[in-house]
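Please, structure for the following, as tokens.
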Amino acid sequence: MVRKTQENQHAAGLPGDILLWLANSGYASAASFEYLADLPLLVSVTSEADQAGFPAKRQSAPTG
């Protein structure tokens, strides 16, 4: 998705680079991070222990 967006930006003749990407945790994987290694990366994680390789601390979503 990131690569296609970059291609579309260049095809449309828009100047500069896209400076910020926002994606939900569904895109988090070692393969995704390796594929996009040339891009700056800021990760914000809450309760995604499984993806980070740690045992889950919470078994269910909090109420409210």
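The helical segments are 2-11, 30-35, 49-52. The mean pLDDT is 76.
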